[in-house]
Amino acid sequence: MKFLTTIRKIFKRSIRHDSTIVIYSLIIAILLWFIVSIKIYPETPKMIREVPITIDLTGTTAAENNLKVVSHDIEKVNIQIQGNRSQVGNLKASDITAMAVVENVVKPGEYKLDINVTSKDGINFEVKSIFPENISVIFDVYETREFVVDAQAPNVTIEKDLYKGELTCTPDTIKITGPKSQLDKIDKCVALAENKLTLDNSHTLRTSEIKLYNKTGGPVDKTFFNMETVEFTVDIPVYMKKELKLNYTLQNVPSYFDSSVLKFELSPEMITVAAPKGSLLDQKNLNVGYISLSDIDLTKSFNFDINLPSNYQNLSNTTRVTAKLMNENLAKRTITVNSSEFKIINEPSSNEFNILTNTLTFDVIGPEEDIQNITERDVVVEIDLMDEKIQSDSFSKEVSIILPNHKKVWALGKQTVALEINKNAGESARVTP
């Protein structure tokens, strides 16, 4: 009672001042407005901002068709609701569920979906507006593909007169999972080593950085993909670079022959090669093949493949070389040689042989002044029976055409003669004169 008496006295003293009366009037007005609004207007509108959107495919036709969400254009919506003042007054974004309505999504593509708003705690309210009204969602089938990985080291340079070979990486493939439409955009995968180096020898780098590019060389967004986390080993080969002169080797050439008469024009004459550092220090020439003397005609050319060791690179990108005879001072003549000029050498002691071929006709080539003076007596048709395995009484044997007095002349083509075992040789030896 004493407390209430004290309060009453204070109140009587305070209302004697105008300012105090105003304050009390305002408080009473607010209380009256609150009571009236609850009784007369029990429902109230409320704006709830930035409500997260949920996209659930469980049990939908999209899920049955193995579709997944690739992307969507908005993450949150603002909603205007109306409901009982006492229930909706304290609602927050975390109390609301904004669910995309996934209907009639049966194949990959972009769909505009409605948004359904409910209370997580079952509070009833009326949704007056949603902004934005719908959500644009892209659906696609997810796949896993394996791509070949190239290696790049754009900040690596090499010292002068050396050559940087083709970079390789290990492993050389990577598996990428993502939407089919996005996987289709990938044309090239690159393991990128960004180390800044100047090299004078082969070197190895390591990187986990993967770049994806489309057919035009533009970047492909990696946010759509799940990729293996792989550390790639990038090998950078560094080679010595050198020009080598191409040459050939003559074969089946008699010891007396003057090969200076033969001059071939090679096309190309030189190639540029790259090889492990130090391996080309003393190398000046590259032999491309063999030319048999008897195959050389006035107008014939010889073609050779350029073969290099596996650790060499042909920087000229020339794989064939042609050798053409320079025949300006050469001529050709046909001659015939009788069997009287045929010579059998290295004949086995157990047999004697008869030459059945009476003549050989063939072409000889050389300087014109030399071949005009040749007679058949200048030609030796040599039949060498060394190690000849004689399996019948008669047989053929390839011969050598020798012109020992004409050192710049050679016979064209291969010639053979027919021989037989002289069966009467033994009987003649037993006859006593």
Describe, in plain words, how this protein is organized in 3D.
With 433 residues, the chain is mainly beta. The chain folds into 4 domains: 43-132, RNA Polymerase Alpha Subunit, Chain A, domain 2 (Beta Complex); 142-236, YbbR-like domain (RNA Polymerase Alpha Subunit, Chain A, domain 2); 241-325, RNA Polymerase Alpha Subunit, Chain A, domain 2, CATH 2.170.120; 330-429, RNA Polymerase Alpha Subunit, Chain A, domain 2, CATH 2.170.120. The protein has helices at residues 2-14, 18-40, 61-64, 85-88, 180-183, 368-371, 424-430, and strands at 43-54, 67-72, 76-84, 96-100, 109-119, 126-131, 134-152, 156-158, 162-164, 168-170, 173-179, 188-192, 197-199, 203-207, 210-213, 226-227, 232-236, 238-251, 264-267, 270-276, 285-292, 301-305, 313-314, 320-325, 330-338, 342-345, 353-355, 359-367, 380-384, 394-402, 410-411, 415-421. Strands 1, 2, 3, 4, 5, 6, 7, 11, 12, 15 and 16 form an 11-stranded mixed beta sheet that branches. Strands 9, 18, 20, 21 and 23 form a 5-stranded mixed beta sheet that branches.
